[in-house]
Specification:
The structure is a homodimer of 525-residue chains. Chain A is an alpha/beta fold and 525 residues long. Helix content of chain A is 41%, strand content 19%. In chain A, strands 2-3-4-5-6-7-8-9 form an eight-stranded parallel β-barrel, surrounded by ten helices. A three-stranded antiparallel beta sheet of chain A has the order 11-12-13, with helices on one face. In chain A, strands 14-15-16 form a three-stranded antiparallel beta sheet. In chain A, helix 1 packs antiparallel against helix 12 (269-279) and helix 18 packs parallel to helix 19 (504-524). Chains A, B: GO terms for molecular function: (R)-citramalate synthase activity; 2-isopropylmalate synthase activity. Chains A, B: This is Citramalate synthase.
């Protein structure tokens, strides 16, 4: 078995995708999830290009990843500058990332036309940059931009660039099909040639412009590459990068002789895929291979019994091997295994009848747009409600929100917003009013005012993230929305809650109330 | 040059995709478009399975396709029944389709476990069905279900099934990777073995379950298959069929030695892709290879600078060769060069002073959370405002939104929401009120009421997508939100607008107003 390393660049190359925009907290959350999933390398960003990425690495320096090696991305030094004097390289030093990934030019054409330096200067830029980071104790991965185009046009020069990287101490040399235009047979051939030219282990980095990113990745691995770079869900510029979900699933389940993630983690790929879509507030691709909701959906009058009898006739792999499910039985996202895992954690798995009711309710709610992947607190409350062990800490009598924009010269200042909340709390009526920056903020303010005398601990809890997602977007402004709120306690613990409604105010109210109820239940436990 | 036939099954296998539902008129329209595009075969449906497909062939019988051969799909005869007595086969006869495509079993396992007939009976079913249609003057294409799995498990029996089809007079034998689980190296090897077993030309029919449909198609062609089956945009059950757009583009533009559609028609692939999405009312996949709106979109600042200098560095083919176009995204990661490229396209690059003001304003707005990459209409309005060439079509006097949840038993029904809008339009005061499913829907309704008498064309425009994104999510419910709205005109043209505010109502109002202003400016131009 050959160990194949997975190198995730969702947070850097994936963030180049159209419509992809991760906040700092999003990036931290995804990095920790990838760490937990056992990815070998997690590329967190390009600290020289923006303060958000620089801050990301500061956060990781304080609390490092447990398993994955964090990688900071940057370019070779500028022409005619010493590494120690290059601000881009110094931002990589400042990142404290244990692995530095350096991209450099392979193609003589790009050296002359894009970089506009001599061929020798490019070789020096590669060698000196890598040697510099090695000298200060970092591991260096060298990404060869336009590797295949470069090798095809001038193999001798391309070989010199990777030789320079190898001699300077790069731990991996990664062949990038930068514009996504190569064919599998070319990838296979040139990977063999590269392997013959240098002793450093090779990696492969492909893009999907020809709809061949996965085939190209597999072709390179078959030809000797031992590292696969890609992104979760194939996010990335233009047509995206190789989807690490499909790459890992193919290597683990379809090809033989390769070791990637262990089977328990391969079985969590669907969950990982959904998590990244949710965190990034991105539209899921329903027919995504392996993990899409349609990937094991059977249509067209096929008997469920027939599918059950010879399941492998209609399914190239058992859906549960990647954490997916046959659509006819259970909803796609939460899935039976997640529900069992969660209720087991809550000590409720023995109660088969409760389990069945939880499963049914989750399916019902998912059909209405709920998702519990990022809302484990709402899920816990749902289970308690169904188990009959939940007593609400307050009841709603009424809320009322008004928002008025007085127009004219003030039209662009935004509206004045006020919310009133009337609750029944421990037998007392609490009727409070608050202004806010928007309807949800005003509601949150009034709700907290109504509860603070009864539950002073709520002051320790803060809302750290608020996300809104349109579900059936074709209904435009009449569409249902899903609101996901993330809250944090004074001790740093965070939890997510969810609400769904056609009205963003009501959906937010639901998620706000769940967040507060979860905190109050937690404090009692 | 080897001629490779394109066999489109969008209207049959594609229609099995989740959410795909073509009306009779849709099917006719797509068939005629495929005919016009020069596809060799157009599979129109399964007339034995439903009246719509039967009617489709009656319509084509009255007015046949000009270039493409229409194919009707069906199964081998039932066991123990003569072809002339089989109702399914007789519906194929009645279709009057010049080509009959028959699917049959290749795998001994499926013969025994699914079909539940003897191995000899299966061979007879294949042979007699094909011979029957040949005897009445039809051409027959034989689709081998589970070809690769069947051949792997029992090559001798699989070979007998295709020999039976060949002897009975099939014009093509099509190897189907029915569950989408095969790898390119397996496809290549078994295609060679099949070619050695029969003299009839081979076809390939793949599914994308392993994200290898295109690679598998190309592998089969390289190994000798001369017909490619697939669907436009890869529509189809589970993860979809091979996308004929990608297959044709790769064969025509990337591989050598194959002749498919002529270059003028390859240059209309983007148009064809969009047409099928529109007719089917399906969500476009933005990062679709070759033809997606993101396929030649450049976001990273470094790349954009280089693209303008040497376009082919970051584009594997010229976008216009498939009828697509280069797009430069205005985004936080990009910087100056992207904005210059966009304003150049608008014909404003000469005005250096305006350019500087646009750049400054975009930077300011991006710092406040605006993003223009999916909001090109808001960007165009921004440029016009700065250029002094924009005159608003209405002015806001006031809007007022209220939302009330009366609690108690009704707490979970959600609030009642009402919006009033008071505008100054062409010197008249318009003051209207609407209820809605939520605050934005109510505002949209009142705004349209206030404008409809002045601008009746607005009735032709609809909102097709509404997205909300929290920007500085660490401020939780006081965070700014970015709203992006996508609108569509009666002619199918779409445009995006953006609004940012701490109040989701105000942000939505801004995006709504930009959308309407853009439509009104567009109609005047």
């Amino acid at each position: 078995m050959t160990k194949i390393e997975l190198y995730d660049t969702t947070l850097r190359d994936g963030a180049q995708g159209e419509g992809v925009n991760f906040s700092l907290e999003d990036k931290i959350a995804i990095a920790r999830r990838l760490d937990d999933m056992g990815f070998d390398f997690v590329e967190g960003g390009f600290p020289g290009s923006n303060p958000k990425d620089a801050e990301f690495f500061q956060r990781l320096a304080k609390e490092p990843l447990k398993h994955s090696k964090a990688c900071a991305f940057g370019m070779t030094r500028r022409k005619g500058v010493k590494p120690a004097d290059d601000p881009g390289l110094q931002s990589l030093v400042a990142s404290e990332a244990p692995v530095i990934t350096i991209v450099g030019k392979t193609s003589d054409f790009h050296v002359a036309e894009v970089l506009r330096v001599s061929e020798q200067e490019n070789l020096d830029m590669i060698a000196e940059t890598i040697a510099y980071f090695v000298s200060i104790g970092r591991e260096v991965i060298y990404d060869c931009e336009h590797f295949f185009d470069g090798w095809k046009s001038n193999p001798a020069y391309a070989a010199k660039t990777i030789q320079a990287a190898a001699d300077a101490g790069a731990m991996r040399i990664v062949m990038c099909d930068t514009n996504g235009g190569s064919l599998p047979e070319e990838i296979a051939q040139l990977t063999k040639e590269a392997a013959a030219a240098v002793a450093v282990p090779l990696g492969i980095h492909t893009h999907n412009d020809s709809e061949l990113a996965i085939a190209n990745t597999l072709a390179a691995v078959d030809a000797g590459a031992i590292q696969v770079q890609g992104t979760i869900n194939g996010l990335g510029e233009r047509c995206g990068n190789a989807d690490l979900i499909s790459a890992a699933a193919n290597l683990a389940l379809k090809k033989t002789g390769y070791q990637v993630l262990d089977p328990e983690r391969i079985a969590r790929l669907a969950e990982l895929s959904g998590y990244v879509y949710e965190i990034g507030n991105l539209l899921r691709r329903n027919n995504q291979p392996f993990v899409g909701p349609s990937a094991f959906a059977h249509k067209g009058g096929m008997h469920v019994a027939a599918v059950n009898r010879v399941a492998h006739s209609y399914e190239h792999i058992p859906p549960e091997s990647v954490g997916n499910e046959r659509r006819v039985l259970v909803s796609e996202l939460s899935g039976r295994s997640n529900i069992i895992a969660t209720t087991t954690k809550m000590g409720l798995a023995e109660d088969k009848d409760l389990m069945a009711r939880v499963l049914e309710e989750v399916v019902n709610r998912e059909n209405r747009g709920y998702q519990y992947e990022a809302a484990e607190a709402s899920f816990a409350l749902l289970v308690r409600r169904l188990a009959g062990t939940f007593t609400p800490h307050f009841d709603l009598e009424k809320y009322h929100v008004t928002s008025e924009n007085r127009g004219g010269a003030h039209a662009h200042e935004g509206p004045l917003t006020e919310a009133t909340v009337k609750l029944l709390v421990a037998g007392e009526v609490e009727h409070r009013v608050a202004e806010g920056d928007g309807p949800i903020n005003a509601l949150d303010g009034a709700l907290r005012k109504a509860l603070k005398d009864h539950y002073p601990n709520l002051a320790k809890m803060s809302l750290v993230d608020y996300k809104v997602r349109v579900i059936n977007s074709e209904a435009a402004t009449a569409a249902s929305v899903r609101v996901v709120i993330e809250s944090r306690d004074a001790d740093g613990q965070t939890w997510g809650t969810v609400g769904v409604d056609e009205n963003v105010i009501q959906a937010s109210w639901e998620a706000l109330c769940d967040s507060i109820e979860y905190k109050l239940c937690k404090d009692e436990a």
